[in-house]
Structure prediction request, 348 residues.
Amino acid sequence: MNTNKRILDTATPWMIESGPQGDVVLSSRVRLARNLKSRPFPAHANATEKIKIRQEIMATLSKDKYNLTNLEEISSLERELMMEGHLISPQIITDPTGRGVAVSKDQLLSIMINEEDHLRIQAIAPGLDLDNALTKANEADDSLEEKLDIAFDEQFGYLTAWPTNLGTGLRVSAMLHLPGLALTNNLPRIFGAVSQLGMVVRGIYGEGTEALGNLYQVSNQRSLGRTEDEIVKDLDTAVKHIIGEERKIREALLSKSKNSIEDKVRRSLGVLQEARLISTNEALALLSDVRLGIDLDLIDKDLKPTIQALMQITRPAHLQKFMGNSLETEVRDYYRATVIREELAKEG
Prediction:
């Protein structure tokens, strides 16, 4: 396989690797919300207080394990790059003062400082692998709790900025690729069923963001009154239900409309191979089609790592990092199309 090492290095690892149930699930994420005792929540802290909290937390983190960043000290482009890589949230980049992030060397664990809570510990694993992600997050949490005085109440559990996070402070989620359900207009039905199980569906970067490239995040809505194992089991059950529905649709498309679906995915591949200008949204939609074609064995599977990498590096901040320059929107559309054409040409 002739995949360009540079594009693989630019994308975060879990976007390229394929884990359990990897035809539908891109990644699993576990997030723990924690706060320091006797400190105001970030929304009620002034800049000086947030900086002190950040200093206190970062002093406990090893530079051998983490890359430590004060967010106001880096460019807006670098912050957007972290957000596109799901290392930080969209909310934290709007006002970076006093906020920070610690990112593990493999980029599969990050600790946001002074987002909605003093600490947001999140671990990501490729595919549907919530147990592995939970283990990594808990290890980081245990290490922090040995050094920091964490706010905990015997009745309410971990104290958090939002009541829905009380208790374990645990939010688990999975990033799903659902082109079959989208193509057949079955998403509202499935998402309605999932909501009855106490889950919520969000866009590509979480709450308040849109779904791009048929990528959706499914997560639990509350943690109070439930154990970590119960929360993980419930999400695992909901996600496996969605996986089953997506696969049924894909099988039906192959058995009843093979020529039509093959025409669609190959047309999308053709546009990607020839386009001279392409927007982020269009690129992700077309790459989603090609990824579906690969998973249905209609397009060579060797292309999958490149397609998955392109689904990330064609986003605005990653594209500018890849090109080594800040680019205006129309110029980005030109270089996005150029990068896609060149990378696909290398794959033959």
Notes: The mean pLDDT is 90. Residues 228-274 form the longest helix (47 residues). The longest strand covers residues 25-34.
